[in-house]
TrEMBL record:
COPA/B second beta-propeller domain location: 326-585
Summary of subunit composition and partner proteins: Oligomeric complex that consists of at least the alpha, beta, beta', gamma, delta, epsilon and zeta subunits.
Region spans: Disordered: 860-890
Organism lineage string: Eukaryota, Viridiplantae, Streptophyta, Embryophyta, Tracheophyta
Organism from which the protein derives: Sesamum latifolium
Family of this protein: Belongs to the WD repeat COPB2 family.
Protein name per the record: Coatomer subunit beta'
Known function: The coatomer is a cytosolic protein complex that binds to dilysine motifs and reversibly associates with Golgi non-clathrin-coated vesicles, which further mediate biosynthetic protein transport from the ER, via the Golgi up to the trans Golgi network. Coatomer complex is required for budding from Golgi membranes, and is essential for the retrograde Golgi-to-ER transport of dilysine-tagged proteins.
Main subcellular location: membrane
Amino acid sequence: MPLRLEIKRKLAQRSERVKSVDLHPTEPWILASLYTGTLCIWNYQTQTMVKSFEVTELPVRSAKFIARKQWVVAGSDDMFMRVYNYNTMDKVKVFEAHTDYIRCVAVHPTLPYVLSSSDDMLIKLWDWEKGWACTQIFEGHSHYVMQVTFNPKDTNTFASASLDRSIKSVMFPFVDLESWIPDPNFTLDAHLKGVNCVDYFVGGDKPYLITGSDDHTAKVWDYQTKSCIQTLEGHTHNVSAVCFHPELPIIITGSEDGTVRIWHATTYRLENTLNYGLERVWALGYMKGSRRVVIGYDEGTIMVKLGREVPIASMDNSGKIIWAKHNEIQTVNIKSVGADYEVSDGERLPLAVKELGTCDLYPQSLKHNPNGRFVVVCGDGEYIIYTALAWRNRSFGSALEFVWSTEGEYAVRESTSKIKIFSKNFLEKKSIRPTFSAEHIYGGSLLAMCSNDFICFYDWAECRLIRRIDVNVKNLYWADSGDLVAIASDSSFYILKYNRDVVSAHLDSGRSVDEQGVEDAFDLLYEINERVRTGIWVGDCFIYNNSSWRLNYCVGGEVTTMFHLDRPMYLLGYLANQSRVYLIDKEFNVMGYTLLLTLIEYKTLVMRGDLGRASEVLPSIPKEHHNSVARFLESRGMVEDALEVATDPDYRFELAIQLGKLEIAKEIAMVAQSESKWKQLGELAMSAGMLETAEKCLKQANDLSGLLLLYSSLGDAEGITELASLAKEHGKNNVAFLCLFMLGKLEDCLQLLIDSNRIPEAAFMARSYLPSKVSEIVALWRKDLNKINLKAAESLADPEEYPNLFDEWQVALAVEAKAAGTRGNYLPAAEYVQHADRSTASLVEAFRNMQMEEETLENGGLDYEGGEPNGEVQEGPDGTQVEGHEESQEEAVVVDADSTDGAVLVNGNEAEEQWVTNPILMEPYFFLPPLTAVGSAYAK
């Protein structure tokens, strides 16, 4: 039967002719050497070119990674070898290696050696630790030496292929190479025409190598008996590349006929032929531990992935694991790790591997039956059932797929149209021919058959249709109880409840079942938008790893991430007595991660609404897992319960804030002494109307802005005074300015602006609120501006020197003098209504109106603004001409020098208007009522 390997193309890049390819052992890189003299490194994950080296104008026929040195070594037709650092792109070494074209370079897997072969019929050994000195020359071929390769099972040996139709095997020592005379172990006259390529068999004990020739054939040789084992025929042109795949039982050959052929390594039958239409094949690249194969063509590079990289392994309920490495079957027992051995989560378990036997077919799946007594191996279109302990064959047959039922029965899919069901005694019970193409089958409580876009469930006893569900199924996982099932699709998975009683009642009643099955057979419980790679059930908890390799579990539709895996791992099972879930990686390393059964049980009880039993289980959960429990409860809306369970102070603080429990939050904040916590608590207290608590919290948090809001809302002049000093100490000048401004301490505001080197703002403030200070500030401004722009400094006008440039300047001075005495008098906030109209009043405008009224009374209603300018012209500070007024402000406004209260005389009469200031609104040239007159309804 065929291997039925799944082949997926992972990379396709067009380029000039590719002469060699190589895979990096750790990075997702492909190295391709081109006939045009260029080296390219492709990233097969991002499908992009990572680096490119312009080596020479002649063909580069071979290039290899030296990953442990971060190098690339290349040999070209200009007879030079070049070494590059692929990280820095620096050229490490260039030297002439041969006297003709260099055909191949090979890197020793562990030692600092590189072999090169050439059209000069020589093979040379280079040692990079000796400055790339040539330490040995191997002669013997009578034509071009096309390829050399080290034996992976004996790295003291290498093989060479030549157009003289022979292959030679050479064993050489690593000590005293200079005095050693090379002599080939053996020479094989391999083909009727020139030999282009050679490769060693990697796995098992077979001493095989394979060769490809211009006679259109590939041959498998036993290099111990020097006999030809098999001749692979089928190519219609020269065979240019061959390889034994290191992970799969296949041989791959590439030819100038444009095809790549895949052969079974045991039966030598042709399994598959690939043709990507890129003309001739020149090179094959592979790597141990990977199922990726790179192909170099005339017109580009192709990478394919053969089969799945999931390790073939199974674990029973007692912790015994059986896995398959090629045809070899091995077993380990998790319980062999003693209880006194402490293993941390994610640590590789030190398990003793025991050889269990071999398998007659190449395993593609391996699975224990429910009670662990038997193990089935399926592959090559066949299945074999073995006993788990002695590995004895109990039954076998044809099968593309094999599944177990929960009772120990099993079913096989022989084709897309034929499924057979067998009893526990290995006897055939029933044969089914579905009316659709059955692409996959799944076992469990029900037998499931799925097509490309739907799945049908059947009972095991009578094969009656239970339910059809329209979904694209990638895998199916049944819970041990048989009541829950997870259906995994390409991008999400669904958890369904199987209503066994409903189905039994329907079938027992004798009612007919249509093509959709029993309507109420399943209830959809949850849909999770995550891709499942592998999964298992533990009770009502579904454990899985997703596409991002996170290990998650799902209880009641709530997904919790247990661990972030650092590499691809696959679930094996769960051991309840150890409370650990076990996984395996591609290298068959087994790791365990803790997942408490009591934690799962608690969450399950909460989801079922059984809070009484859940509270009984809670004490058995270790304290370190209580935060996880609390987050689960919070997600279910049980925030108060979460607060009781949580142990992390930060998390408890968040929950307390969420619930509005200020006392609990305050206790946590006092212990933590975190400004952010005090600030959160202060904001919550303020919103709750607990202003004294809010004040204390905001002080602890040093939240000066919050205190400003609080004090201004309260009309607390004393608090704002204290806050102003505190803000100055902390360098919070904006807060300090606002505090002083609201207090009416305009001189202090001005000084703060000066101290902060904000002199222009100080000048404008003085012009608006303290006209008497303008000259002083302008002098400072000029001095500061002189350092930058002398002309700009000279253009600044001082109102004492140029009063004509400042409208109503004397009025502003008079109003300032009159209003200065009222700034420190704060009216109660409760009287705001009586003074509300003054908050928008302009004192200068009021003064002008008073003046106009007086003039109207004295002059018989003349319009104050009706005067004509007298045409006098004065010069400004920058030399500009300024037109004067017929009557100056000095004539209209006079400050009584003899008056002790600074009364303002308008045309000789004292103004009766009450002048007060409001520093809150910074409108130019006027003064408004004080701070507390516009505060809130709170009075301190």
